[in-house]
Amino acid sequence: MRKVKHESPGLDPIIETASGPKSGSRELSVRSDRPLPRENEVPEALRIETPREQSEYLIDGRVRRWAGPMRTVESPVCLDTPNGPVRKVLGRSPLLDPETALEALEAARRAWNHGRGPWPALPWKERLRRVAGLSECLKENRAEIVRLLMWEVAKPLAQAEDEFDRTIDYIDDTIQAAGELAGSWSGPARRDGLTASIRRAPIGTALLMGPYNYPLNETMALLLPALIMGNTAVVKPPKMGLLLLHPLLAACRDLFPPGTVNFVYGRGSTLVGPLMRTGRIDVLGFIGSMPVAQIVKAGHPRPHRLHAVLGLQAKNAAIVLDDADLDLTVRECVRGSLGFNGQRCTALKILFVHRRIADAFMARFVPAVQALRCGPPWMPGVDITPLPLPGKPEYLDGLVREAVSKGAELANPGGGRIIQTSFSPAVLYPVGPG
After folding, report:
1. Helix (H) or strand (E) segment spanning residue 112
2. Segment (H or E) for 208
3. pLDDT tens digits, 180-223
4. Half-sphere exposure of 285 toward its Cβ, with a 13 Å CA cutoff?
5. Which of 118, 180, 265, 376 has the fewest Cβ atoms within 10 Å of its own Cβ atom?
């Protein structure tokens, strides 16, 4: 639990995190007997009857089948079975070895060919036309992608649909903006008596790694700009949220010259280090934590020549002044802190509320948190769903216990209850400097 200093005499801190029950004796009871869903309670259209055996990966314009070790892909959603709680098995995916990843990199380098490869040499409009084909591929597979997005990372169904639709809008808007940008390059630029021809050019080969919390949207947000500009790419999907990207393999094979886009699956600790140590990665596109980004960049033999496009963690605070509209503020604070369980880099991590209105704020905030619906991601109106990261509920429980041991109080009875992979939100208030 990070320390909070009272730097402003008028503000009280409230740490709000997905954690912990009533703290009267400072002993937290973290289990609940709320029943888990059964398989037959899942809406029929959203069920996964047969696990996906996805052994395919894409290298050099060929969708290949992996005959080596595989990883079992489990959902964070636990189901009630005669044998007790069981995480839903969704399928299996390849655990590629470093040699195969390096083969993908060599294919991307051949397709790049110092900027003279078939993809960077294509006319601008033709690149845009082919990239637009990704949007059509995704639209054809919307139902399956949304279903897997819901199961793989326990994203509420409505939010999974929203992520898909926003991704389609992002593709269309990016293509339109790129077309307008290309048109603005016509003719020479003149300034201070000098005349120059300016054009944007690709950089080289990119290693792209999206996050588990927005596996579709953020992966496409990395891949699209790289492709539009003429770069080649090696894409390593996140550990969670990878089955849903399967339709892109055939689409990239059919739309782009061989080696332009390559998909490799496996452990980051196994694949990323060898790729970076070659020094042949020109661009790192990564969305995740700062420590991991530092490790990945440090693996490059010439890190100062590496172009890094990073979206890293944030410690966002909300500052609530004494003239705030409390009804509006509480709604925004609940949404900002607990949207998709707070699993967003832009989520509010701590709330600083002016002392004059702290009690009034809490009188509204705690009931609003208590009113959030906890349950499986297909449940209508659900707000809090299971957590994908292994051990996350226990980690959050540890944060609550530590805070309570240092004098914080749990403001919402029942907060922090653990049911397998689910964890009900807890509000800690007041929280002192320690």
Report:
1. helix 98-112
2. strand 205-209
3. 887 666 667 788 888 887 778 899 999 999 999 999 999 999 99
4. 26
5. 180
| Beta-bridge mates of residue 91 | 52, 73
Q: For residue 376, give every residue at least 6 positions away whose Cβ sits within 8 Å of its Cβ, in sequence order, or none.
A: 37, 42, 77, 154, 382, 385, 386
Inter-axis angle of helices 358-370 and 326-338, to 10 degrees?
A: 50
The CA distance from 130 to 230, in Å, is 12
| DSSP run (H or E) holding 320 | strand 316-320
Q: What is the pLDDT of residue 10?
A: 52
Q: How confident is the model at residue 150 (pLDDT cuts 50, 70, 90)?
A: very high
Distance CA 33, CA 346 (A): 33
**End-to-end CA, the chain:** 9
Enter the DSSP assignment of 122.
S
Structure tokens at 117: 């490869």
d(CA 106, CA 266): 18
- Under DSSP, the state recorded for 267 is -
Computed over its alpha carbons, how large is the radius of gyration of the chain? 24
Contacts of 313 (CB under 8 A, 6+ apart): 288, 289, 290, 345
Cβ atoms < 10 Å from Cβ of 321 = 13
Give residue 187's Cα distance to chain centre.
Answer: 41
Helix 157-183 with 142-153: angle, nearest 10 deg: 120
CA distance linking residue 359 with residue 367, whole number of Å: 13
Element (DSSP H or E) covering residue 398? helix 392-405
For residue 378, give both structure tokens. 């297909």
Q: What's the rounded Cα separation, in Å, for the pair 102 and 221?
A: 24
Strand 62-65 with 56-59, pairing: antiparallel
